[in-house]
Amino acid sequence: MTEIQELSQFLTLDMRIDVKAVALQQTLGLTGTTDGRHLLINTPCIVKNLCQLLSDNQTSIAKDASLALINLSADEEIVPALLAEATNIVEHMLKIISNPEHILADPACMVLSNLTRTKLGSEKVFQSMEGNLDKYVDIFCQEKYNKKGARLHYLASVLSNLSQLPAVRSYILDPSRSCLQRLVSFTDYKDSISRRGAILGLIKNCCFETDHHEFLLSEAVDLLPKLLIPLAGPEEFDEEDNDKLPIDLQYLGEEKTREPDPDIRKMLLEALTQLCATKFGREYLRSKNTYVILRELHKWEKNENNLVVLEHLVNILIRFEHEIGHDNLKEVEVPDEIIEKFNALEPAL
Length: 349
What we know:
Blueprint: H1 3-9, H2 17-30, H3 34-41, H4 46-53, H5 59-73, H6 79-82, H7 89-98, H8 105-115, H9 119-128, H10 133-141, H11 155-162, H12 166-172, H13 179-183, H14 193-207, H15 213-216, H16 223-228, H17 239-244, H18 262-275, H19 279-287, H20 290-300, H21 304-318, H22 321-324, H23 336-345
Helix pairs in contact: 2-5, 4-5, 5-8, 7-8, 8-11, 11-14, 14-18, 18-21, 20-21
């Protein structure tokens, strides 16, 4: 029996607290190195035992077990092993998140956020949700769902990561559900940059689905104001320009500030750019006077990467449709040599 195998025997609910605590500290230390993580993941029962310790009556034991699982799940190389059926790690985490009385709901969200960064992890989590993504959207949207103080902000990252899957985007974009309508309200959420940013990542992924642009811009979702409000400042417009804006942007007031995080501003601009891939999207954005919001943003924006995206977006909006020449820009065939040039530029972006 190896030392690691021996260590795993002490990571059980019925083990003496002092022995269990020492074993857990050693395990936690091993999760801090690549070699240590590989040793642990190759030892039967380690992950399963750590998951069981999340229910330990001793809070310090449960918290250390959750930290060990967060460290393990952050290593993408061992994610496939973590997702092996014998560990039941995904089911454990979903059960904890669903329990409003569990003190470790936030660490559970972090573990799933790590696991879903990979396609394999996203597929496993979505499968384990058993087609009931609405349940977790509902939990996410109830800010005081957890009675032990967990904020569940990292559940936003889980949902965002899941949206890399076409099946999840189809689920979210199903007009018969209210999934997306509930999530878009968090684009201007002040209390958490992680919640705000992750939901915008999900929305941006949904904007790649050109067949759904009319739904995204319809009154049912009303996405355009949700994307423009964080980019708008306190500027006042003349009556003609103001009347063309969506009603939510017409009276923002002199205290209105823009989204402070440059990465989130970039995501907002990229989502708007995706909506411009279709003729319907371009014409809708023009009809709602999107240009004047972007014009004022351009005067204010200092981030060079954002300015590149912003100028590209404005260039699309100010062009006539006959100049663009295509209803759907994603259906345009791009020559291989042009693709190679874009790929060569990619690392510099």
